[in-house]
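[job 4471] stage=fold_predict status=RUNNING
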Amino acid sequence: MKRLLARTVDFSQLYTPCIRPIEHLSSSKVLARTGALPISRHSVWITTQTSSAAPSVRAYNTRRLAAHSPALRDMSSYTFSLDKMRPAPSSDSREPLVLVSCGSFSPITYLHLRMFEMCKDWVKNNTRFDVVAGYLSPVSDAYKKAGLVSANHRIEMCRLAVQQSSWIMVDDWEAIKEEYTRTALVLDHFEHEINEVRGGVETGSGKRKAKIALMSGADLLDTMSDPGVWAHEDLDHILGRYGAFIIERNGTDMDAALRALETWRTNIYPIPQLIQNDVSSTKIRNFLRKDMSIRYLIPEGALQYIDERGLFKDESPQRPVDEQPSSTSSVPNGSVIDGHVESVVTS
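[job 4471] inference complete, writing structure tokens
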């Protein structure tokens, strides 16, 4: 039995079961995406149950409500894209799958797009899922890392990059928010828009709920397997509830990472990269700084956009992605950001 209560909620208290304060962490590491973001009291509608839920479930339900609260973001310019989502198979033998790639995309490269195609091929041949859509979700300007051009530029470059794709779209919900949003909440957003608001994906015989899953490079899995970098509750929500499709990358010990994440192994899908590609946004920016050609490394539309606006020309040189430490990027509150560290393929 459920009931709705209109009340004022102190989110700092409701976050307590899942989030450890930064000052309680080791001096050498901080939790990924678990810093206490500046949250004040907001009046929202809350769904409560007579039966008690696990603390992590209660906390994430609260976060999801906060993420969709008008008080926390301006929805006037936001529309969820569905134009390229194809109908799901009517057969119950294959479950519809929506892939979500979080990252900086500063700028987007061909590898970001190839990852979608590699994943789709692997899913078709090795799983019971059927990919019905893919989404790029650029991080917001609150990330504030070196080389991050403004969100409006990154959104437009991503849109230009996927113009020729029949199934990859850009969702700017995360990018247009003033505050930083953790990956767990981004996945909650897609679950909300697709399965709750719209009731799932169209099939020949009605609608069917889709599986929402994170897609990323193996470097992200590396950080997830490193003790103390991610909060267990975030890992459990992302890998346990949603799952992840991980593209292998040279220099990353995928087997060791999977052993460390054994709890969620059945919901982690490692995908081989049959043609090795180590292009990264960092390398692209360094090429541009040196006035070197980046043609055929990034989509032509994004290249023209960069040329016309002179983007990335004036920033300081950065180390190649392979030399980057695993978890050095930070937000103003000092917490490491999961899914958007520079060493991750999707950055």
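[job 4471] summary: Confidence is low (pLDDT under 50) at residues 1-60, 62-73, 319-347.
[job 4471] exit 0
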